[in-house]
Amino acid sequence: MTASPTPIVPDGVIYLDGNSLGPPSARTQERVRQLLEEEWGRDLIASWNAHGWIDLPTRLGGMIAPLIGAGADEVIVADSVSVNLFKLGAAALRGQRPRSVVVCEAEEFPTDGYVMQGLAEFMPGVEVRAVPRAALARVLDDDVALLLVSHVHYRTGEVHDLQELTRKAHAAGAMVLADLSHSAGVIPMSLSAWGVDMATGCGYKYLNGGPGAPAFLYVARRRQRWLRSPLTGWFGHARPFAFEGDYEPAEGMARWLCGTPSVLALAGLEAGLEAYKLADVRVLRAQAMALTDLFIAEVEARCDGLVLASPREAGRRGAQVSLRHPDGYAVMQALIAAGVVGDFRAPDIIRFGFAPLYVTGEQVREAVRRLAVVLDTEAWREPRFQVRAAVT
Ligand SMILES: Cc1ncc(COP(=O)(O)O)c(C=O)c1O
User: Is the pTM of this model over 0.90?
Assistant: First the structure.
């Protein structure tokens, strides 16, 4: 019998940061130990075949596929979201010539915008049009090659209507690249049915893969032959172990691999994904909506000086609630010292994630009680809570 894949947090801690870094489970510990001792440690290089390491990116893609409403042959695990945005963005821009504009949100998670800016530097004529969220659909014209959009906004938790945006983008002749980092595992979706062209998302947030876990990458079946990765490394070759002189992309999703997959990191993600074998994302979504509703109601009943930065309507927000406070950083540090872990996003947002796999209603009530104490006693004014760490 294998150990439980349900994520575990240390005793006494209320962990409301699974939208940033999911916790490990007993199964994660078991799987990583097994990899070290029985695979890498004992069977060494034979493990690539004997323990199926070579298939891990595809196998894990198959585990993620049902969470995002895709076919197992449309998803693979590779690299980070940032690198995948580069690969997918470049492929789409090349395929869509002479269209040359990327539309994205001005307030998008920074790496998404940075990568598009980097692509524009590399690809002559490419232009990035960064606009407010509400204007995304309005600026789609005949020049637009690609619409890049986050399904759930990292700062506010607002959910985009990805199906409707995809319809509008396609009507304008643009392709859609979705960042699912804050929705995969907590919001049901049907990427294939919605016609979304490409997507990527983090493995270390709600999927609980561990710090720096590899990301996943989705390409719609109808686009797979047509799109080619610009990072033509040997693992994306049709026959990597034939050691041929010229590059030929693999069929299907394997062409999105580049270098040797990180097996230790993949093992962590594999264990994280096992929790989803036992769960239904529609049920998790209902739980997350109830948890976030409860949190907002409790905060409004008990806490002064906070402003809701997430949509009030549960259907319009992900498994996250963001609140504004002018001294948000210090408030969050004081709250962490009181055993409730969330995070801070500059300039003034304190962010709470409600991963439905392991957060309970009682924890939500207790978290708000502790938040109210931090605010009422102004504990956050203590100098030690003002010192900014590198990671917030
Ligand atoms: C929406 C979004 N996209 C991308 C990233 C970064 O992904 P990676 O570190 O895998 O490049 C994050 C990280 O928090 C994120 O929230």
Answer: yes
